[in-house]
Amino acid sequence: MAHAIAQRLDAEHSELVRQWQLSPKINHFVVDDLLPENWTNEIRAAFPDGASMMLKSSLRELKFVAAQMDKYHPLLEEAVYAFQAPEVVDRVQAITGLRALRPDHLLYAGGISMMGAGHFLNPHVDNSHDKYRERYRVLNLLFYTSPNWSEANGCNLELWPNGPKGRPLTIFSRFNRLVVMVTHQRSWHSVSRNVSTQNRCCVSNYYFSDHPVGDAEYFHVTSFRGRPEQRLRDWVLRADIWMRMTARRFFPKGARENRHFYNRRDK
What we know:
With about 270 residues, this protein is α+β, with helices and mostly antiparallel strands. The chain has one domain: Jelly Rolls. The chain is built from 6 helices and 13 strands. It has helices at about 1-10, 15-20, 35-45, 75-80, 85-95, 230-250; strands spanning about 30, 55, 60-65, 100-105, 110-115, 120-125, 135-145, 155-160, 170, 175-180, 190, 200-210, 225. Strands 1, 2, 3, 4, 5, 6, 7, 8, 9, 10, 11, 12 and 13 form a 13-stranded antiparallel sheet that branches. β2 and β3 form a beta hairpin. The protein is globular. The mean pLDDT is about 95.
């Protein structure tokens, strides 16, 4: 699977470099038909139901997630870690020009996700660092696996290059599509509400680096905002950011452990 991904990245290398360079505020690129269609169908068929996943439900988001991959069909673990193979990481590094990329075997905030009817993800920037606050989070890799998914269903990725009060750029979560986007202190992104009765499924990974994106060092928690029309929610979420950043002054690695990671019992 990793070899197939690397081959697709090689085949589209020049176009992917062009996409990355022409999206300077929130650099990203998109690869369609990443894997043979029957493989991606099998990955989708291996997804568990929501009852066996973690439900994240708040003003910030509503979605199912899972990172403890040994609880599920082994094909899902293979699909997640295919994106961490050195040959894939090397290709992504060559496309983006980012330095010293390292995949995250702990799947901190990665793994698989499923968004059902009414699920959403408000505009946010991802936590700046890894689980142990040792490396910068610099890339988000999203592989969409829901066959016959329609753009009208919602659950599409939205990038906010001018911040959460601007207008978003919508990237359709098309079946068998990979989206790779930069993450830094201004990479605001969201997922539109699922207005269908179907589940939209995704395999996700983060890459980290010893070097921040750009020259300046930074630190921030995962920070959510309201959409432009959600004034009250935006006020509440701004206060939430302030409280959690204040708490990090006293607990640099967090007051309690984030359970969204792979507890690798073999490591």
